[in-house]
Amino acid sequence: MFAATILTLYPDMFPGPLGQSLSGRALSEGKWSLETRQIRDHASDRHRSVDDTPAGGGAGMVLRADILAAAIDAATRPDDDRPRLLMSPRGRPLTQARVRELAAGPGALIVCGRFEGVDQRVIEARALEEVSIGDYILSGGEIAAITLLDAVVRLLPGVMGNQESGETESFETGLLEHPHYTRPADFEGRGIPEVLTSGNHRKIADWRLAEAMALTQARRPDLWDAYLAAHPPKPPRPPRRKRQDPPAST
C-alpha cells in the first residue's frame, strides 16, 4: 500500500482536499495511507522555535537543520526505502513521468518547507529530493504536497474506475488532451464536430490526435518539441513503380 508521511508545521491542513472525491474514497478504503507529523514537536526550547535568522544576514527566517533532521528521523521506519521529498520552488519540476514512478513505489515522506527555506545541510544529510509544482511562490509546501499526492493517488490500482481515462489525459501521451464534447447537441448555436457523431472510430481517433497536436503546438511549444523528438516523422514511402506489361508478341 502506498504510504504517505507529511512533515509540516500545519498538520490540520491535511487531508484537506485529499479527503474528498477519488483520493478521499481511496483513503477510506485503505488503498493508501496518510500520516501527518508536527515538525514543531522536535523543538527543544520553551517557545518550540523551529527557525532562526539566515547565516550571512538577509530577510526572513530559515528552518533549522537539527530540528527538521530529528523530525525526519522520527518519521523514518526501519528499512524505510520511501523517497524523501522536499516541496521547494527551486526543485525539479514535477512531471507525469515522476508521478507514475512515485505511484509505483511504496510511498513517500514529504517535507513541507516554510519561511525563506530549509537549511541546506539537512537537505544534503537526509538526501531530500527537491520537487517543484511550478514557477511561482506559495506560502509553504503544504498545498504543493497536496497537489503531488492527488496526482499520485489517482494512479494507484483500483482508484480510477476507468483506467483508459488516465491513459489518454494530458501529458500521458506527451501531448495536451484533445477537446471534449457532450450533450446537448446544440449549445448557444455551437454544435458538436460531426466526426464525433459519425460512429467511425478510426476517424474519431485521427481527429482527436490532430486536435491534441494542434493544441500542444500552440500552447506548449516545449512539449511539442519534446514530442517531435520522441516521434520523428516517418520518411515518405517511395512511389510504387507502375507494372509494365511485356510487349505484345507479333
Could you please describe the fold and organization of this structure?
The chain is of the alpha/beta class and 250 residues long. It has helices at 21-28, 65-75, 96-103, 120-125, 142-153, 163-167, 201-219, 221-230; strands at residues 2-8, 32-38, 51-52, 62-63, 84-93, 107-112, 117-118, 129-132, 186-187, 190-191. It has a five-stranded parallel sheet, sandwiched between helices. It has a three-stranded mixed sheet with strand order 3-4-7. Strands 9-10 form a two-stranded antiparallel sheet. The chain starts with a strand and ends in a 20-residue tail after the last helix. 24% of the residues are buried.
Short note summarizing the structure:
This protein is α/β, with parallel strands linked by helices and 250 residues long.
